Here is the input.
Amino acid sequence: MGAPRDIKLRIALVGGKEQEVILREDAPELVTLFGALTTPQAPSRFVQLPLDEGRVAFSFQTSQLVSIVSEPPVVIPE
Here is the structure.
């Protein structure tokens, strides 16, 4: 198996804020984000995602997460 791929995400939050970020497919934040979408009744968690090669952070509560567009697709098993 090769090195983990980069996954480009477009994250939409309540209120219309959208942010693009790139995470490696083995990043724990990726699991946190998709976990929040698949289990909306779970307690909200604070997430910080790196932007601009780590010089900036995009921070939010998972309860504010509306949708994620991923490229390449991230498939969550049912």
Observations:
- The radius of gyration is 12 Å.
- The longest helix spans residues 28-38.
